[in-house]
Amino acid sequence: MSSLFLRLLLFFLLSNFLSAQADTNITLGETLTPLTPPTSWLSPSGDFAFGFRPLESDPTQFLLAVFFNKVPNQTVVWTANGGKTTNYQSKAVFTQDGGLSLRDHAGNEIWNAGVNGAASAAMLDTGNLVLSSSSNSGTLWQTFDNPTDTILPGQTLNQGTSAYAKLTDDNYTQGRFMLKLQDDGNLVLVPRAYPSAFEYEAYWSTETSGSGINTLVFNSTGSLYLSYPNGSVSSVFSAPGLGYSGGGYYLRATVDTDGVFRLYAFPKNSLSTGRWGVKAFVPSDICESLFESRGSGACGFNSFCVLDADGRADCRCPPHYSFLDPDRIYKGCKADFISQSCDLGGETAFNFTEITNVDWPLADAEEFSPMGEADCTDNCLKDCFCSVAIYNNETCWKKKFPLSNGRGGSDVNRKAFIKFSTVSDPASLIKEKKEWKTPILVGSLVFGCSAVLVPLIAFVMHKRNMRALPRTSGAVIGPALCSFTYKELERATKGFNEEIGKGAFGTVYKGVLPSQPATHIAVKKLESLSQDAEKDFTNEVATIGLTYHKNLVRLLGFCKEGTHLLMVFELMSNGSLNRLLFRSDRPEWNQRVKIALGIAEGLAYLHDECRTQIIHCDIKPQNILLDDNFEARISDFGLAKLLRLDQTRTSTGIRGTIGYFAPEWFKNVAITAKVDVYSYGVMLLEIICCRRNFEWGPESQEKLTVIGWAKECYKNGRLDLLVAEDEEAKKDGTRLERLVMVAISCVQDEPWLRPSMKKVVQMLEGAISVSLPPNMCSILS
C-alpha cells in the first residue's frame, strides 16, 4: 500500500530504528522523544540503545530504558524513573548543566540521574550509559552503578549494592525479589513484602559470609563470580566458564519475577529467529528454596508451585479455585464457591476433588495418626475451618486458610483432597435452615439498588440471567444501573490503591463491593473530559447501561459527584486478550477462533442492534477482556462521545491506537462504523498469528506489520508461515484460510470495500462465503 495511512503508520513504527543516533558522544542539550526523531541514542555497534521503548502490553506507554537494540522485542536491561512508564509527550534531556533529566509534557522533571556537571554522555557497546566530566575527571554517573534487574558482561556489583526483580513481565517497577551483595561478603537472594521494602530472610546465598571485601563480576565468557582481594574467586553458577568467548552471543544475568537469578544467552547469528536461552540459574528449585513461615512462598496464597525445565515457578490453582488476578498471579487463588458456614453446617453441600503430589506444609490445623483416608476426608468435611485434607501413609493433616508455601511435583508424596461446594449457590442452604420465607425475587433485591423498585423488578423478570447488584445509597439510572457515592467507591477500592489499567479515558482500579465481598469490580476514573462531556455524562452512561450482550463488559453503575466522574464495571477475571495472545505459550487454536467470533458478535451488536449505534473507535487487544470462561468481552464501548469525538467529520481529533488506525482517520471524511471493522481486521490477524501488529525488532520491513505479512503469505499460498509451530492451526487449513481472507477484507483502505460486522460474523461462521474485494489482485501484486 502507498496510502497516507501506511506512510504515517510506518513513520511511527520505524522511528525507533531509523531515528536513533549512533554518535559516540552525546552533547549537552540533546533531547529524546518517544515518537519524534531522535527516539534513542545507539552504542557505536548499534547493539544497545538508550531511549524510549514502547511497553509491549500497551504501546502508548513508554519506558526510558537501556535495551538490546537488535534482538526481537528489544529486551530491556535498565530503566529510569523507577521503571514507571511515561506517555508520548514526555522527553529525556541531557541538560546544559550536564545532567540527565526525564520531563513530562509540561516540562516538569519527573526523574533525574542525580548528578550535574557532565561534559558529555555516551551509550557504550557494553550496554553502559555513561555521563563523563572533563577528560581528566572521568565518569560522574553510569547505569552500571545503578542496576535495576539485569547485570551485563563487564559490569560489577559492589558490596552494599542490589539488583531488583521487576514486579511482573510488563511492570518494570521494583518487585518482590532482590539480589544483594551484603557488607559481610555474602551474595544473597531475598524476598520482599511488596509493596513495602520489608525484607524476609534470604532463600539462597553463596555462603561467603565473613569473607571480607569482594565484588560480583560478570565477564565476557559467561562466568559470574565473586572476586576477592587476594585474587581468588567463588563461582555463582555451577559452571564457572560457560564458553561464550568470541563475541558470538549476547549475554545477560537477570533477577526474574519469580525470584530466580538466571544467565541468558542469545546467538547473534540468529537475530530474526533466535531466542534467549537459559544457560544457568540459582536456586536450583525455587519452589523448595522460597519456603517461609511468613508470606505465601514461591507462589501466592492458596496456589501451589511446580518447577519447569528452566527452573521457573509454574504457579497453579487447585481445582475449583482461580487466580485472584491473572495478571499478578503472585496474589494467589480464590475459591470459586461460597465457603462452608460454621453456624449452620451445610456439609452435605460439599465434596472433595483429589489431586496427587501436592502439599501445603505450613497450613496445618490438626494432624491425626493413624487414620484412614475415608475418616480423614470425613473429618475435614464436618469441620467448617478445614479447606483441604492432606493424606499420606495413615497420617491426615487438616489445612486451614490461607494455604501457603504450596508445592507440587513427583517428589511430593502426598494426596490433597480439595473441599468444594457441590451446589451453585450454597447460600440457599443457609436460607432454608433459617426458614427465610421471603420470595426469591424480593430476596435478590436486598442486594440491589434501593430506588425505583418497580422498573427494576420488571427488568429482572425480563433479564433472568442478570446478577443482582450490590446495595448503594444512590439512585437507579435506567434498568439496574446504580449511582454510587465517591466515598463508596473509594472504600471499595481501598483508596484507589490497586491500578489495573490506564488508557485514553482514564485509570482503572480494582475493587470489591463492601456489601457483597464476592463481587469484584473495575472502577474507571474518567479524565480530561470537556465541560460539555461532563454535562452529557449521565445521558451517555444511561445509553451504555442499556447495552446488554454476552460479549460486552457489563456496566454496573457510575458516580457523578462534583469533578469526580467514575464508571463501575464487572471485573473480568482472566485479564485482557493482549496478555493471552502475546505470551510464550500461545492459546489453543480453537480457543482463539472462539474469541475472534465473540468479538465480532459483540461489535455487530454495537453497530446494528443497539437502540443508538455505538462506534467503538479503539478496538485493540487491550480493550478485549476475558471472563471466567475465556469468553471475549469488549470494554470501553460508548466512551468515545465522552471525549467529544466528532464522529461525522474529523481533521484533528484522531482517536485510536497506533497500528489499528483506519486510513480515514487521516482524511477529512466521515467516520463510520467501518473504522471498527478495520481495527477488527488487524486484531483478527494478531489472533491468528499470536504476534503483534508490529514488532519492535530488527525484522525485515515486509514483516514489520502483520497486515503486509499476511497479504504476502496469502499471495504466495504459504498461510502455514502465519501459524508457524502451531500444528493445530495448520491442520485446520480451510478455516485458517477463511479467517485470513476475512481479515484481509476488513483492512481495505476504502471503507466501502470492507464488510459490515454482521457480515463478518456470517463469514466467520461459514454461513456465507468469503469473497475478496475486486481490487485484491492489485493489492497483492
TrEMBL record:
Q: Which UniProt keywords apply?
A: ATP-binding, Disulfide bond, EGF-like domain, Glycoprotein, Kinase, Lectin, Membrane, Nucleotide-binding, Receptor, Serine/threonine-protein kinase, Signal, Transferase, Transmembrane, Transmembrane helix
Q: Name one GO molecular function term.
A: carbohydrate binding
What's its top-level EC category?
A: transferase
GO biological process terms, semicolon-separated? response to other organism
| Lipid bilayer topology | Single-pass type I membrane protein
Per its UniProt record, what InterPro entries does this chain match?
Bulb-type_lectin_dom, Bulb-type_lectin_dom_sf, G-type_lectin_kinases/EP1-like, Kinase-like_dom_sf, Prot_kinase_dom, Protein_kinase_ATP_BS, Ser-Thr/Tyr_kinase_cat_dom, Ser/Thr_kinase_AS
Chain ranges passing through the membrane: 440-461
Compartments reported by the entry: Membrane
- PANTHER family recorded: G-TYPE LECTIN S-RECEPTOR-LIKE SERINE/THREONINE-PROTEIN KINASE SD2-5, G-TYPE LECTIN S-RECEPTOR-LIKE SERINE_THREONINE-PROTEIN KINASE LECRK1
Question: Among the entry's GO cellular component annotations, what is one?
Answer: membrane
- The residues forming the signal peptide are 1-22
Annotated EC: 2.7.11.1
Report domain Protein kinase positions.
494-768
UniProt-recorded name of the protein: Receptor-like serine/threonine-protein kinase
Limits of the Bulb-type lectin domain: 26-144
Q: Which SUPFAM superfamilies match?
A: alpha-D-mannose-specific plant lectins, Protein kinase-like (PK-like)
Catalytic activity from the UniProt record? L-seryl-[protein] + ATP = O-phospho-L-seryl-[protein] + ADP + H(+); L-threonyl-[protein] + ATP = O-phospho-L-threonyl-[protein] + ADP + H(+)
Primary localisation category: membrane
Q: Which Pfam families match?
A: B_lectin, PK_Tyr_Ser-Thr
Q: Return the similarity comment.
A: Belongs to the protein kinase superfamily. Ser/Thr protein kinase family.
Residues the entry annotates as binding ATP: K525
